[in-house]
Specification:
The complex is a heterodimer of chains A (about 325) and B (about 525). Chain A is mainly α and about 325 residues long. Chain A contains 14 helices and no strands. In chain A, about 70% of the residues lie in helices and about 0% in strands. Chain B is built from 20 helices and 10 strands. In chain B, strands 2, 3, 4, 5, 6 and 7 form a 6-stranded antiparallel sheet that branches. A two-stranded antiparallel sheet of chain B has the order 1-8. In chain B, strands 9-10 form a two-stranded antiparallel sheet. The two termini of chain B are about 35 Å apart. Classes of the chains: A mainly alpha (about 325), B alpha+beta (about 525). Chains A and B meet through helix 1, helix 3, helix 4, helix 5 and helix 6 of A and helix 8, helix 9, helix 10, helix 11 and helix 13 of B.
């Protein structure tokens, strides 16, 4: 059944009218089949991407909260831009805004870019198998569920005599520290940085391995030092991967709050480690204040959605769109 | 590409018969070492200054309450001396091929100079070994009942006050203390201050007043110890083979992670842990037990009332259904996008890509409303609405669609279409071609997406936690976070056991499918940093 046989081709039609009639009905059927294949994905995409993306803008202009909750969109109170006015007047919002910038920039600068690049360079310059093992170990935080991962970090920084860091402090004769109270930001950055590192590491490693060996050998023959090779040969070749990791990870850091939620939940001081995405979550979905404000929370989320759409369109334009212009392999049949 | 030639090049291979290091070479090496150590120190100082005097005030002025910049500045300053020793040692390596002794000698000389500067600085600022701290001239250790006095210096303040070895100090005035608090209290006292201790001697409670003294003399043993450490560091920097350096750096940076996972294993099998040490209930080494695994036999633990097996089944259901459904949906859509031409194909493709970059997690709030409305649909609502495992799985499948469709489309694109074309010409339907001929050819892609989906579903925390508040629908990650949050006091070792239980499938994947993991996680790290 699967072998190719020329005999199976249908005999040629005679009249042009019949040809066009047949090919039209064929094309229609082919389209229906194609949409049939696409249907489940389209339904899910509509339900959980398109409709929510529109809904979040509408929600941000309503005062939907626990007090007047209704799932019916038509019955919600439309209040225009009042939520955004409240947001701008909120005395805590500037602090949350700067917290977010601080968190994204430091995590990105220290871990997702710099440390990732260093790990990639180091693992690319040692025995292949060993480099692979180190990179695999760096994947572990990403595949460990957030609650277990944060549990480990909480024990690392726990108070004496339970904390691992304080045990080391004790052995070195250093004073004991209650890290969770004194250095919450440092650990928020560490916890997220240790997850974020692996993304850049993988991208940079494949980019480094793609550098032609001739180029590196030529610079070796010229007697360059390791640092010179990194600076003048490797880094220029990494310009695009660097840009990609920076933009992609900026967006990830801006919008992800799972680990912060579990580690500090925005504390320990008033909004001390609260970031923008966490505020949206707190206002709308966590019942900590007893009153979930879906409308006001959406006002916070809208900003992130806008940034997300903007950057996502940019990625598509800058990084990958050329790949997908390719026409399908089977157009007619 | 222009690669500048080095002007400080030193041949690593020496001409035959010229392996003698003369005085001039040694002198040059020392100068070079000094230069490198100085550069290192200056760079670290600049870093510290940027963080301390530029970034810290800037962040404080916009009300960000952080100590991160101060920590970094402190690290730069604290690591400055060892970094200088290492720099001098590394610089001295250039004569190592000719004479190891000359390299060591040069590193030692420069390290001595650097250390001399450090000691001079410490002497002028009265820090380190020159600190004029208050003391009671005794040594203590933490015991179960209180702080035990181990030894008293003859003629010291403690002996003068009448403290004896074996006394157990329980409090200063009425404040109960442990050994750290006690030493801090002594350190804070001024010369001649009186501290009133409550202590137990031979089973009887007593009170005793001791006057602290400020040590007048310099701690010379500490100076010598630091010098020794400095020389060892410099020597190691000279001796350690160059190809060890990446390994040392990589292992060093992985240490926090390794410590975390090690703790998880140790804690699971012990009653308590102090740092990485398993201890029993009175704080002595030991306390190995299997009691933490009692939950497997249905033993209820802590606050959440859910049964562990219900929770595990929920987890498994989410992970398995997510894997199967997203494999089917993604390969269908990927096939259509790769092989068929239909109006809107380009639009779908660019939509897929945009959504792939878009952080779906920002849509959590409106999806809450969508789920509630889906829940109102008869029949279907029971399965996929708000507060159902099906609804949670559906949201997570949807979040993964863009990545999955894109990944699978890429795999379809790479396989030749001869077989498929023949099948279609032979009259096989599209569906049959897809299912019987094409799908088996992209097994690696399906495996990759399957592993990714399973891990994503098994580890899901945020979406289950958000859309199943207050119900018995928790999955393992949610259950673990409830255990570590609500139980008061938390039995960390029991939580660790549940955590390790949750981690088992992940570790299996980690051991047997590392290549896949490394390949997928570059493409699909959505919703996570």
């Amino acid at each position: 059944m699967l072998e190719t046989t020329d005999a199976a081709l249908p005999p040629p039609e005679v009249t042009p009218a019949a040809v066009s009639e047949r090919s039209r009905s064929r094309a229609l059927r082919a389209r229906l089949v194609a949409y049939g294949f696409m249907a489940p994905a389209i339904i899910l995409g509509l339900l959980f991407f398109i409709i929510p993306a529109v809904l979040v803008f509408y929600l941000s202009m309503t005062d939907l909260s626990t007090a007047n909750f209704t799932p019916d969109v038509a019955k919600m109170n439309f209040i225009g831009l009042a939520n955004f006015q409240t947001l701008l007047r909120d005395p805590q919002v500037p602090k949350i805004f700067y917290n977010t910038i601080f968190y994204v920039v430091t995590t990105l600068a220290f871990f997702n870019i710099t440390a990732a690049l260093i790990v990639a360079l180091l693992t690319a310059h040692i025995n292949r198998r060993a480099g692979f093992i180190y990179r695999a170990l760096w994947i572990l935080p990403r595949i460990t569920t957030a609650s277990v991962y944060v549990l480990m970090w909480r024990r690392i920084i726990a108070e004496p005599p339970y904390g691992i860091l304080n045990q080391i402090n004790g052995l070195l004769g250093q004073p004991q520290v209650i890290y969770s109270a004194e250095n919450p930001w440092t650990f928020v950055i560490l916890v997220n940085g240790f997850i974020g590192l692996s993304f850049g590491m993988i991208i940079f490693t494949s980019a480094i391995e793609a550098i032609p060996k001739d180029l590196l050998n030529a610079s070796l023959v010229d007697g360059s030092t390791l640092l010179q090779r990194v600076r003048y040969v490797i880094l220029p070749m990494l310009r695009w991967p660097l840009l990609f990791v920076i933009t992609y990870q900026t967006l990830s850091l801006l919008t992800s709050f799972e680990q912060i939620l579990l580690l500090t939940d925005g504390g320990p001081g008033l909004y001390q480690t609260e970031v923008w995405a966490l505020t949206a979550y707190h206002r709308a979905l966590s019942n900590y204040f007893g009153n979930a404000q879906w409308g006001y929370g959406s006002a916070f989320a809208v900003l992130l959605v806008l940034i997300g759409v903007f950057l996502a369109v940019i990625y598509m334009r800058v990084f990958r769109f050329n790949d997908l212009v390719a026409e399908p392999k089977i157009e007619v049949l | 590409m222009a690669v500048p030639t080095t002007f400080d090049k030193i041949p690593t291979t020496t001409p035959a018969g010229n392996n003698v290091v003369n005085g001039l070479t040694l002198f040059n090496t020392i100068l070079w070492s000094i230069r490198q150590a100085l550069i290192t120190a200056v760079v670290l100082l600049i870093f510290a200054a940027i963080f301390e005097y530029l970034l810290r005030p800037a962040l404080a002025s916009v009300n960000v309450q952080e100590s991160f910049t101060a920590t970094i500045a402190g690290l730069c300053i604290g690591l400055l001396p060892p970094a200088a020793y290492i720099a001098s040692g590394v610089a001295a390596r250039r004569v190592k091929p000719r004479s190891l002794l000359a390299a060591l000698l040069s590193a030692w000389i420069v390290t001595l100079l650097a250390y001399g500067l450090l000691v001079a600085y410490q002497a002028s600022t009265e820090t380190g070994p020159f600190r004029q701290g208050a003391t009671l001239n005794f040594t203590v250790q933490q015991a179960a009942e209180g702080v035990e006095v181990v030894a008293v210096e003859p003629g010291g303040a403690a002996e003068e006050a009448g403290l004896q070895p074996g006394d157990i100090i329980t409090a200063i005035r009425r404040d109960e203390v442990n050994s750290d608090q006690l030493l801090t209290a002594i350190g804070r006292a001024e010369d001649g201050d009186a501290l009133r201790f409550r202590l137990v001697r031979g089973g009887e409670e007593q009170q005793l007043t001791a006057r602290v003294r400020v040590a007048a003399q310099v701690d010379t043993s500490q100076i010598l110890r630091n010098l020794l450490v400095a020389l060892v560091i410099a020597s190691l920097a000279v001796i350690i083979p160059a190809n060890w350096t990446p390994h040392l750096l990589l292992i060093g940076s992985l240490l926090p992670l390794l410590a975390g996972y090690l703790w998880l294993f140790i804690a699971t099998f012990s009653a308590r842990t102090h740092g990485l040490l398993p201890v029993d209930s009175s704080g002595n080494f030991g306390g190995w037990t299997m009691a933490n695994w009692g939950f497997l036999a249905g033993e209820r633990i802590g606050g959440p009332s859910a049964n562990i097996w219900t929770v595990t089944l929920n987890s498994l259901f989410i992970a398995v259904s997510m894997t199967i459904v997203s494999l089917i949906i993604c390969s269908m859509a990927g096939y259509a996008l790769s092989r068929m031409n239909f109006p809107g194909r380009r639009a779908f493709l660019s939509m897929t890509l945009i959504l792939h970059g878009f952080p779906a997690i920002t849509l959590l709030i409106p999806i809450f409303l969508v789920l509630i409305n889906v829940g109102n649909i008869p029949l279907l609502g029971r399965l996929f609405g708000y507060n159902t495992v099906g609804g949670i799985a559906l949201v997570m499948i949807a979040f993964e669609l863009p990545l999955g469709v894109w990944l699978i489309k890429g795999f379809f694109d790479t396989i030749p279409w001869d077989m498929e074309r023949s099948a279609l010409i032979d009259g096989a339907s599209r569906w049959r071609t897809f299912w019987e001929i094409i799908l088996p050819q992209i097994r690696p892609g399906l495996l990759a997406l399957g592993i990714f989906s399973f891990i994503g579903g098994w580890n899901a925390y945020l979406i289950p936690a958000t859309y199943s508040i207050g119900t018995g629908l928790a999955n393992l990650p949610v259950y673990i976070s409830q255990l570590s949050g609500e139980m008061a006091p938390t039995n960390w070792n029991q939580v660790a056991a549940v955590g390790l239980f949750q981690l088992i499938p992940i570790l299996l994947f980690f051991i047997f499918a590392q290549e896949y993991l490394l390949n997928i996680y570059a493409g699909g790290s959505k919703g996570s940093s």
